[in-house]
């Protein structure tokens, strides 16, 4: 799954780099959209780095999100957010 996310990122980056040709960009985005719609769910693991040498801050935070249709489960900063298609629930232990 990680490889798929990397491939999608590269494809989207290429689409933005070639955005002068809107027909090609639209076709590429439609292709990515159709491919992603073919998946039952998607899991994304991410890392957020905050670096400020002037203030002496070097902070790394990890999180993840699982997407299934219009539902999701998002974990970040020790809390969890769940959307069941109707309501958003936030769990802070």
Description:
With 93 residues, this protein is α+β, with helices and mostly antiparallel strands. It folds into two domains: 39 residues; 50 residues, no CATH class. Helices cover 34% and strands 41% of the residues. It has a five-stranded antiparallel beta sheet with strand order 1-2-3-4-5, with no helix packed on it. Strand 2 and strand 3 form a beta hairpin. Helix 1 packs antiparallel against helix 2. The two termini are 29 Å apart.
Order of strands, main sheet, comes to: 1-2-3-4-5
Structure class: alpha+beta
Query: How many domain regions?
Result: 2
Strand and helix order: HHEEEEE
Average pLDDT metric: 85
- Taking Cα atoms only, what radius of gyration do you get, to the nearest Å? 17 Å
Specify the overall morphology. Answer: flat
Number of E-type strands = 5
**Poorly predicted runs of 5 or more residues:** none
The largest sheet is:
5 strands, antiparallel
